[in-house]
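Technical note accompanying the year-one report. For the benefit of new consortium partners, we illustrate the data format agreed upon in the data management plan: each record pairs a sequence with a structure-token string. No post-processing was applied to the example shown here.
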Amino acid sequence: MKKTRLNTSHKNLGARMIEFFGWEMPVEYSGLMNEHMAVRQRGGLFDVSHMGEILISGKQALDFVQYLTPNDAARLTPGKAQYTALTTPQGTFIDDLLVYCLSLSEYLLVANAANSDKDYDWIVGHQEGFDVQVENKSGDYTQLALQGPRAMDILQPMVRINLDEMSSFGFNVANMEGEKVFISRTGYTGEDGVEIYTLSTQPEKIWDALLERGKSFGLLPVGLGARDTLRLEANLMLYGNDIDETTTVLEAGLGWLVKFKKGEFLGREVLLKQKKKESREKSWGLNWLKEG
């Protein structure tokens, strides 16, 4: 099994480890309910380094991201991210993911752990005709999620950037424990918080410092078990559960991330026909009610 760079730290904390899509990951430390409530009431720290990171760079990086995804990446400026999807020509999900605009010629796609290799192969398979480079950086990044109502109070003294100025889906570069990180105001729990990315080979320094700093706030390490109950409670989609290659973006209730006016993207025509059909059906239903 693959192991994150924090594997030993989890075992030292007494985590119960499980196999998760080829990774040895902590499912819980002090009990699922205890960890769930810590995130809702105080703060929780997750190791989510099993997630996939794919870098698209080059002169046509934006054009390629626009073609692969239904959201409008042209709205992004450096330091901004958006939720979107990798869509098939049928308008269904290869995956749902985040796109980070590192620069106007560099975009980092953060994919689900179960799909990272599949996503990379899909992206490379559609690369022809675009002047871009595609790199699978999944083994290089450590990703931590600090979530909960006290997350910003815990983190702010540890970085020089002003976290209050960071809007939702914004991110900024900082230094933590002598290591370069970028901090993103995103998460998968329904609570305020951040996700912290680093290429450091010693991320345990950051993990340990956050847990130490968070002690007085009631911060707990949290496993995949509570991550799932938290996202379920917040009504956040899970690939393989709620969405997959048989579900269109509109059928998933995520029509708000489809920007038809931006131009061509994989699945556009199918989704446009589906939207028009749904519109006609809703209109028919209204007329029927009036006449009835």
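Partners are asked to follow this layout when depositing records. Residues 84 and 281 are 26 Å apart (CA to CA).
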